[in-house]
């Protein structure tokens, strides 16, 4: 068993040393207690690094049922770095909004809007006040996923716009200004002006998180947004195939170029879950998200399975977490989002 474990662990690469965790001594010990195996890793006090290693270990051991319950413990080696004094809020922060998270992807159709919505619901279920801004001008779909499709009556008071509310989330979308079949022609300065209004003329009230669903790719809207507002972090959504990972890598590079800190990667459609028995099968390649996270020195925040229930929930405008979960696969998806939200919180807390 130990030999098999060690062989699998040679696939886990430390992003700091670019060596595997056995080679560079990160793996301090393998403890066996009755049936429980615990890996003890020695790392600096760096939660991002710990999460990156933990997710790579889960992926490396996923194929071996005997090793899937292995626990990981971290021994912090370096002394704690003193935290700096809290600074004044930056000039371009939105009044009342604590943290702004950009959700991006290298290309369309990878599930960016689905992830934005369900991550928002998980954060709301943890007790946070959450707003969603659908800035995906080319395919605004967040409204529809919340049962608010097509043009909506927007309430304007004292020159400020009141966002709509659904399932305890505040929501604003370009789709509320358009009829369902109307083409989207926002470009350049007009787009910038509309985005500015969406950020600053909306009465968001007190929010812990504003999640912004960006258009796919690396175009105008991204640059406008990064210049307009203090972005606290970006989350990049990808699917596991190599071709999607290349695009996601470009999205990460774009955020880095405009100095938006990357909170991490969410791998969507990581495995297909059978709606009847909940058993998973990797219909695309495996472990792509953790490889992308390791190669870009970011963190794999979560892996969301592919299920028909998630797609149906979006089509029906009723998010999965708000429905009765009467199948193991639906429960697994909700748990996966909760796990990703918890990882995001711990990265942001640093
Ligand atoms: P994007 O915002 O990247 O263009 P969407 O979030 O609109 O992608 O998702 C595209 C389609 O894929 C939608 O029909 C959505 O319901 C479906 N989808 C996304 N993620 C999943 C998933 N994990 N399981 C099943 N269907 C999904």
Architecture of the largest domain in CATH? 3-Layer(aba) Sandwich
User: What's the structural domain tally?
Assistant: 2
Structural class: alpha/beta
CATH level 4 superfamily of the largest domain: P-loop containing nucleotide triphosphate hydrolases
Biggest pleated sheet: 9 strands, mixed
The N- to C-terminal Cα distance equals: 36 Å
What form results from the Cα inertia axes? globular
CATH class of the largest domain: Alpha Beta
Question: Do you know the CATH topology of the largest domain?
Answer: Rossmann fold
Task: Please state the CA-atom Rg, rounded to the nearest Å.
Answer: 21 Å
Determine the strand fraction and express it as a percent band. Answer: 15-25%
Task: Please work out how many helical segments DSSP would assign.
Answer: 10
Bound molecules: adenosine-5'-diphosphate
Q: What's the overall average pLDDT, rounded? A: 86
**Low-confidence segments:** none
In helices, the fraction of residues equals 25-40%
């Amino acid at each position: 068993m130990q030999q098999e474990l060690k062989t699998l662990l040679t696939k886990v690469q430390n992003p700091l040393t670019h060596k595997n965790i056995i080679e560079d001594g990160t793996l301090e010990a393998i403890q066996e207690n009755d049936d429980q195996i615990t890996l003890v890793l020695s790392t600096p006090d760096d939660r991002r690094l710990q999460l990156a290693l933990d997710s790579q270990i889960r992926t490396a051991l996923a194929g071996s049922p005997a090793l899937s319950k292995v626990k990981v413990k971290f021994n912090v080696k370096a002394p704690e770095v003193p935290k700096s004094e809290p600074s004044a809020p930056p000039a371009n922060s939105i009044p009342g909004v604590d943290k702004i998270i950009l959700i991006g992807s290298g290309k369309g159709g990878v599930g960016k809007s689905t992830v934005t919505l369900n991550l928002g619901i998980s954060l709301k279920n943890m007790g946070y006040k959450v707003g969603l801004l659908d800035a995906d001008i080319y395919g605004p779909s967040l409204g529809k996923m919340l049962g608010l499709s097509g043009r909506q009556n927007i309430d304007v008071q004292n020159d400020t716009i009141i966002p709509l509310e659904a399932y305890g989330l505040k929501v604003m979308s370009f789709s509320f200004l358009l009829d369902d079949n109307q083409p989207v022609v926002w470009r350049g300065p007009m787009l910038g002006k509309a985005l500015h209004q969406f950020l600053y003329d909306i009465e968001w009230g007190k929010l812990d998180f504003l999640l912004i669903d960006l258009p796919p790719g690396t175009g105008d809207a991204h640059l406008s947004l990064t210049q307009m507002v203090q972005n606290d972090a970006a989350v990049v959504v990808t699917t596991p195939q190599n071709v999607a990972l290349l695009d996601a890598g470009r999205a990460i590079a774009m955020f880095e170029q405009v100095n938006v800190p990357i909170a991490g990667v969410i791998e969507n459609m990581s495995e297909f879950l059978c709606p009847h028995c909940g058993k998973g099968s990797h219909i695309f390649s495996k472990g792509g998200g953790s490889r992308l996270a390791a190669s870009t020195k970011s963190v794999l925040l979560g892996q969301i399975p592919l299920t028909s229930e998630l797609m149906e929930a979006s089509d029906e405008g009723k998010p999965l977490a708000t429905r009765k979960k009467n199948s193991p696969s639906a429960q697994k998806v909700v748990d996966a989002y909760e796990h990703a939200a918890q990882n995001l919180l711990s990265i942001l807390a640093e």
